[in-house]
Amino acid sequence: MSVDSATVRRVAKLARIAVSDTDVTAMEAELNAILGFVEQLSEVDVTGVEPMTSVIPMEMKKREDRVTDGEKADDIVANAPASEDHFFMVPKVVE
């Protein structure tokens, strides 16, 4: 993929970056170099390589998975303007 000066101006406008006409050619070369490097990365053979989330292998912190009743219905509706039987009461808006 090749970037032209019109694309550089469009990207600058979308990013809300002021780019002078003299800087457009320099940015065009820089963006083409970046895209060339990205294209080189697609040529790397990654078959058999597992995806990783970190450079250092580490175990994720996990909490114990246990079922609790909660018993917090009163606390949840405590700040509601109106409630009934642990449910929020709201005014009717559709007739």
Task: Give a short summary of the structure.
The chain has 95 residues and is mainly alpha-helical.
List the helices and strands and how they pair.
Elements: H1 5-14, H2 21-41, H3 73-76, E1 83-84, E2 87-88
Antiparallel strand pairs: 1-2
Structure, described:
The protein has 95 residues and is mainly alpha-helical. It has a domain at 5-41. It contains three helices and two strands, in the order H-H-H-E-E. It has helices at 5-14, 21-41, 73-76, and strands at 83-84, 87-88. It has a two-stranded antiparallel ribbon. Helix 1 packs across helix 2 (21-41).
Rg computed from alpha carbons, rounded to a whole number of angstroms: 28 Å
Major β-sheet strand ordering: 1-2
Distance between the termini: 57 Å
Instruction: Provide the low-confidence segments as ranges.
Output: none
Structural class: mainly alpha
Helicity, as a percent range:
25-40%
Biggest beta sheet attributes: 2 strands, antiparallel
- Given the structure, what is the number of helices? 3
How many beta strands in the DSSP annotation? 2
Question: SSE order in H/E notation?
Answer: HHHEE
Oligomer: single chain
Keywords summarizing the entry:
single chain; 95 residues; mainly alpha; two-stranded antiparallel ribbon; 3 helices; flat; glutaminyl-tRNA synthase (glutamine-hydrolyzing) activity; transferase
